[in-house]
Design a protein that fits this description.
43% of the residues are buried. The chain has a domain of 156 residues. By secondary structure, the chain is an alpha+beta fold.
């Protein structure tokens, strides 16, 4: 195929570059883009491992439409394996990923979304009821608390207050993962010393609670009537023709003792645990940050706030969703998506060797003037007037690996936004910029707003 043509990029000490990539990724990527253009490379540990960053829409489209057997997304996300687990939908490839996605899909269909919506509405109403006019609301903290309740009650299906009280602080500890904790993937021995040791001890305690919840849920006589995500996933084996003994049938013979093993038509206990933790990490602070940014932007613009308020009153959820989408574009929550090459490939005109990780940059893609006129302006109408070209707005990735929870996230965000705006006007105190917290970009000052009663 000829000689490899690795794009230029910043170079330096591998450990220092790794820490910069994990903790100061935004400035690193913006500086490299300014110097090297739309395509550049960085090398980080372990290995070092080569990342090639792409932002041209044609290159991004090529990566998303490429053969997934040669562009492994699971391998590209491997740094998350110590926390999410080896069965996570984000970390598997090929046949294992296809099977997992097929089994998870029934929990994310249109009818399933309609079942979750009243649960989300109830949590949102209960939360907003505790706010009052004149309050200075720190939106990131408030939205994190709200979306955590959605994860615990709507995804995990835990409604018992005693269990919730135990789970909340432990799950929050997992969500508060930072770059140092992720280093344990590179250096596994770190897990035996502080602060890694306490993090993984807490993770094991959460695992025990989740396995207990899964075991107890399988034995419930009213499992068929429950609308949470876990209960729907537990019913998959029953609802699949030829699925053999379903989840509850397995319990009938042994009283529910012992974990459920995997088969073609259902998820094992270990798989359920990994998918629940994945939904927690992928759907908690990401949605919270998107909501925080949206309220921040609306609070800066009286005109847009008035339109959003009318939309909330009249049920115009199309405009509310456009506000969420525009905040995700202007303030990308995740910086990039990753695919690791399983063979030599020509990508964006560059011949790259097997083992290279190609990474479409969400941040750079969303800030291209060629794709988004006035890219640095908050303008929700661009999502209503047909201006956004397919493949240029990529907060949920793309292709066959597009985030399975995208519709849930947008539904949740729209429901929460409508509930807030039906009760209050929000006024932003001052502009803010992004800060990389854990694996997500959040408002640096947590985006406080002042609430005014309507």
């Amino acid at each position: 195929m000829g000689e490899y043509s690795i794009p230029d990029g910043p170079r330096g000490n591998a450990l220092r570059m790794t820490m910069r990539f994990m903790r100061k990724r935004g400035p690193l990527v913006r500086d490299a883009h300014a110097r090297y253009g739309d395509t550049f490379s960085v090398e980080i540990l372990p290995g070092p491992r080569r990342f090639v960053i792409f932002s041209d829409p044609a290159d991004v489209k090529q990566i998303f439409s490429a053969d997934p057997s040669q562009f492994h997304a699971g391998e590209g996300n491997a740094i998350l394996k110590p926390v999410m687990g080896s069965h996570s939908l984000l970390l598997t490839d090929d046949g294992e990923h296809q099977r997992g996605r097929k089994l998870l899909m029934p929990a994310f269909t249109g009818p399933a979304m309609r079942g979750y919506r009243p649960l989300v509405e109830g949590i949102a109403k209960q939360t907003v009821d505790t706010w009052h006019p004149g309050q200075r609301l720190v939106t990131l903290d408030a939205m994190n608390a709200l979306t955590l309740e959605v994860i615990l009650q709507v995804v995990f299906g835990v409604t018992d207050e005693e269990r919730l009280a135990v789970l909340r602080p432990k799950v929050t500890r997992i969500v508060d993962i930072d770059a140092r904790i992720l280093l344990s993937w590179i250096f596994p021995r770190l897990r035996k010393v502080p602060p890694w040791r306490s993090f993984f001890t807490n993770l094991r305690e959460v695992d025990e609670l989740l396995y207990a919840e899964i075991r107890d849920r399988r034995a419930l006589p009213d499992l068929d009537g429950r609308d949470d995500v876990l209960s729907r996933l537990l019913r998959v084996g029953d609802e699949t023709p030829g699925g053999g003994a379903g989840p509850r049938a397995a319990d009938d013979t042994g009283g529910g003792a012992g974990p459920r093993a995997a088969d073609e038509h259902s998820l094992s206990d270990a798989e359920l645990r990994d998918q629940l933790v994945t939904l927690l990490l992928a759907g908690h602070e990401t949605t919270a940050s998107a909501l925080s940014w949206t309220l921040h932007e609306l609070g800066k613009s009286p005109e847009l706030l008035a339109r959003a308020t009318r939309a909330a009153d009249t049920g115009d959820e199309e405009f509310l969703e456009a506000c969420l989408k525009e905040s995700m574009r202007l303030h990308p929550i995740i910086d990039f998506v990753a695919r690791t090459l399983q063979s030599d490939q020509v990508v964006g005109g560059h011949l790259l060797p097997r083992g290279t990780t190609v990474a479409p940059s969400i941040m750079l893609s969303h800030s291209r003037e060629e794709s988004f006129a006035g890219a640095h302006e908050f303008r929700p109408d661009r999502f209503l007037d047909g201006e956004v070209t397919p493949g240029t707005w990529i907060p949920f990735g793309g292709g066959v690996r597009r985030c399975i929870g995208a519709a849930f996230s947008l539904m949740e965000g729209t429901v929460v936004l409508r509930e807030v705006l039906q009760r209050f006007e929000v006024h932003t105190e001052k502009p803010t910029g992004p800060r990389l917290r854990n694996i997500t970009n959040v408002p640096d000052d947590k985006a406080p707003v002042v609430l005014r009663g309507r």
